[in-house]
Amino acid sequence: MSAPLKHPNTVVLQPPTVTISPLIRFGRYAALSLGVVYGFFRLRQIREYHADIREWEHEKAVAAAEEAAKKKKWLAKDEMRYLMQVVNIPFEEGVKQFGVADLYKEE
């Protein structure tokens, strides 16, 4: 059996290879390596800058969380006082009945 025949359209004709000057080749690789080195140093600079930004954002988020916790505790205290007023229970007795003594501890 002979090899299957190939259709003439399936044959890809490529132009002959061209030799590139060693000076041009050196220039390309030099530019590539300079770009890699520049990228390395630039990435390090950007990391330091963004580390400062992340630290600032973290401090800001922690402060916001503390403020939200204080506000939540204050609202819970206010709600309990209102509930005790509505039910007409004295404050000390209401704190014991509702089990919210930890809410009214002073820090």
UniProtKB/TrEMBL annotation:
F-type ATPases have 2 components, CF(1) - the catalytic core - and CF(0) - the membrane proton channel. CF(1) and CF(0) have multiple subunits. One of its GO terms (cellular component) is mitochondrial inner membrane. GO terms for molecular function: proton transmembrane transporter activity. The keyword NAD does not apply. It is found in: Mitochondrion inner membrane. This is ATP synthase F(0) complex subunit e, mitochondrial. Belongs to the ATPase e subunit family. Subunit e, of the mitochondrial membrane ATP synthase complex (F(1)F(0) ATP synthase or Complex V) that produces ATP from ADP in the presence of a proton gradient across the membrane which is generated by electron transport complexes of the respiratory chain. ATP synthase complex consist of a soluble F(1) head domain - the catalytic core - and a membrane F(1) domain - the membrane proton channel. These two domains are linked by a central stalk rotating inside the F(1) region and a stationary peripheral stalk. The keyword Chloroplast does not apply. Keywords: Acetylation, ATP synthesis, CF(0), Hydrogen ion transport, Ion transport, Membrane, Mitochondrion, Mitochondrion inner membrane, Transport. It comes from Caenorhabditis brenneri. One of its GO terms (biological process) is proton motive force-driven ATP synthesis. It comes from the Eukaryota. Signal peptide: none annotated. InterPro entries: ATP_synth_F0_esu_mt.
